[in-house]
Amino acid sequence: MISKQSTYSPPKHIVSAATIVINEKGEILLIKGPRRGWEMPGGQVEEGESLKKAAIRETKEETGIDIEGLEFCGVFQNVSRSICNTLFLAIPVGGKLTTSPESLEVGFFPIEEALEMVTWGNFKQRIEYSLNKNKQPFYIEF
Q1: Positive or negative CA dihedral for 86, 87, 90, 96?
Q2: Cβ neighbour number for residue 27 with a 10 Å cutoff
């Protein structure tokens, strides 16, 4: 007979969805967050929410921009922190650039300029991989 231990707790994992939004001028949408500086919009997937819906919701909440045409690019997994970061390419289809508590500044920037602005962890690499069809789909552990 197998008995459950009273101290058992299920694993705690975080799944996030981020978007690389490219406009008709070939510029990328970035937010300036209060902790990590410039980065792509995205955030935690809520219970019962799909990855795509989370990416759409987070982009709208953080930037005011509506997106569609989401293409799955890949996953960056932070193994030690139990976080899976999923990335999607998307295009803007409406809305108005707006800041939020999670975004001190928002804007579209030329890709080369944007890559210099993004300095947190491996966020620059996430953008580069998402823009490179030859690397997709990718799965990166760190």
Answers
A1: positive
A2: 17
- CA-nearest of 117, 122, 111 to 85 is 122
Cα 120 to Cα 92: distance, rounded to the nearest angstrom: 24
Contact, 142 vs 122, CB < 8 A?
yes
The predicted-structure confidence for 67-118, as pLDDT tens digits, reads as follows: 999 999 999 999 999 999 999 999 999 999 999 999 999 999 999 999 999 9
Residues whose CB is less than 8 angstroms from the CB of residue 70 and which lie 6 or more positions away in sequence, other chains included: 19, 52, 55, 56, 88, 89, 90
Alpha-carbon distance 9 to 25, whole Å? Answer: 49
Percent of the chain residues topping a pLDDT of 70:
92
What is the pTM for the complete model shown? 0.89
Cα 41 to Cα 62: distance, rounded to the nearest angstrom: 6
Residue ranges and CATH numbers for the domains of the chain are: 14-141 (3.90.79.10)
Average pLDDT in the chain: 94
What does the alpha-carbon distance between residue 118 and residue 124 come to, in Å, rounded to a whole number?
6
